[in-house]
Structure to design on (307 residues):
């Protein structure tokens, strides 16, 4: 049985990756410092859990102890606003922590690292849909830290022969996404609707986003263990929806007529974003299976039952 270490495996996306790996019969280890993740997101008793900060030296011992063939690296300071307000924290976790992980991978003969990057590396779109050759122009320390690690992984491949696949996610949504702090818009709207409160839309609501369901992202990560060698790939549905349409779908599903409150557009918000996924479909033999309608139905079903 192949061993896969998932960093950030107690988080929103990481925990779904853990579920898929278990389903496929992998032996799974999780490294997480529980800063935003939750231990209860890991339900399988066979998962080896290491309570460890990826920035610390202890990570070296964890990788040596679990001895994985593969690492799926999700652990991160994942908030754009936090990265702007605390540039050092962002660099510490996302750059230094990731380099620490690459170093541990090298010392323990890890075959491959699959890395969670982001559409944030592209910055303001020059054309749509954004393909993987789109210019890189991050507008936040977060986007820059993700791109920096992409470069380190390419270098680590040259120097130490560690294989990699870089996955640049669009907006991910689904169960276990935290609405607190800087959660994604879908989680925030779902939380508001479940409490009977008015969701806030910044700007006119006509800005578009490309949402991808978390389970599809998890499947792509597992596929990347054995395909997509040395590739940089967008993970998205390649479909766009306005924020207003999104909220309408969610209020329909919640069977409520709660209306949005409109507030001033937020500085730095990108007007439209859509990521091309044709290369990913080819390289990973993967396709996003969950339409936004189906994904929202699955999510809202869970949210409304819980509340
Ligand atoms: N959610 C999205 O829409 C989205 C989009 C693009 C990229 N990403 C990337 O996907 C990955 C997962 O994001 P998510 O939305 O699941 O976020 P999340 O916050 O739910 O998950 C991150 C996990 O990493 C852990 N972690 C954070 N700092 C750590 C540290 N120093 N040491 C060990 N563990 C640490 C957290 O406790 C958490 O469990 C991140 O790398 C993020 O940048 C997410």
């Amino acid at each position: 049985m192949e061993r896969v270490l998932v960093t950030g495996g107690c988080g929103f996306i990481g925990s779904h990756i853990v579920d898929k790996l278990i389903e496929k019969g992998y032996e799974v280890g999780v490294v997480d410092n529980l800063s935003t993740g939750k231990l209860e997101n890991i339900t399988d008793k066979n998962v080896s859990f290491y309570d460890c900060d990826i920035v610390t030296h202890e990570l070296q011992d964890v990788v040596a102890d679990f001895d994985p063939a593969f690492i799926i690296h999700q652990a991160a300071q994942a908030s754009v606003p936090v990265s702007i307000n605390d540039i050092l924290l962002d660099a510490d976790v996302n750059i230094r922590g990731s380099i620490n992980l690459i170093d541990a991978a090298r010392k323990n003969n890890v075959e491959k690292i699959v890395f969670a990057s982001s559409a944030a590396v592209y910055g303001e779109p020059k054309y749509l849909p954004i393909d993987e050759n789109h210019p890189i122009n991050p507008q936040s320390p977060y986007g820059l830290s993700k791109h920096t690690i992409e470069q380190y992984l390419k270098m680590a491949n040259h120097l130490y022969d560690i294989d990699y696949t870089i996955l640049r996610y669009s907006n991910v949504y689904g169960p276990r996404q935290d609405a607190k702090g800087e959660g994604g818009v879908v989680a925030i709207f779902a939380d508001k609707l479940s409490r009977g409160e008015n969701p806030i839309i910044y700007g006119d609501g006509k800005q578009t986003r490309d949402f991808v369901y978390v389970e599809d992202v998890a499947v792509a990560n597992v596929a990347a263990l054995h395909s997509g060698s040395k590739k940089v790939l967008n993970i998205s549905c390649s479909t766009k929806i306005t924020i207003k349409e999104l909220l309408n779908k969610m209020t329909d599903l919640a069977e409520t007529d709660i209306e949005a409150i409109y507030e001033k557009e937020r500085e730095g918000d990108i007007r439209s974003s859509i990521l091309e996924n044709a290369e990913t479909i080819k390289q990973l033999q993967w396709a996003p299976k969950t339409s936004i309608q189906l994904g929202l139905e699955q999510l809202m079903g869970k949210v409304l039952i819980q509340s």
Remarks:
- The chain has two domains: 3-171+212-235, 177-210+239-306.
